[in-house]
Amino acid sequence: MVRKRKVSRSRTKVRRVTAKSVAASKSRSSRSGKRKMSEAQEFEIMKLVLDKFLWLGFAVMGFGMYQSLSNDSLVAGAWYMLAGAVLLLLFLWVIVKEYEIIEGK
């Protein structure tokens, strides 16, 4: 009586990695050159960038207010406050343009 060996079905396939297979996988993954992000991921990144620019703009405006109050004239800090406002408006313009590009896809 001959006993049959049980073959385990849980074997994992082992793939041989060669230079050719690595090159083929790289060419498949880099066809578009960019990874696609979901809208939620794009929004989260935009929130992070928005937060940093807002802090920077308001810090410049706050420094201008400090300069205005610590000196006897308002002109000393007005330029800093104006620069902070311009920075915030510049960022507003960049966000609107980026939003239009994303929506235009």
Q: What's the order of the H and E elements?
A: HHH
Provide a count of the helices.
3
- Please give the radius of gyration in angstroms: 29 Å
Distance between the termini: 71 Å
Helix content: 55-70%
Proportion of residues in β-strands: under 5%
Low-confidence runs:
none
Q: Looking at the structure, what is the overall shape?
A: elongated
The average pLDDT is 75
Strands, count: 0
> What summary fits the major beta sheet?
none
Quickly give the structural class. Answer: mainly alpha
Describe the structure.
The protein is mainly α. It has a domain at 37-103. 69% of the residues lie in helices and 0% in strands. The chain is built from 3 helices and no strands. α2 (39-70) runs antiparallel to α3 (75-103). The protein is elongated, with a radius of gyration of 29 Å. The N and C termini lie far apart (71 Å). The mean pLDDT is 75.
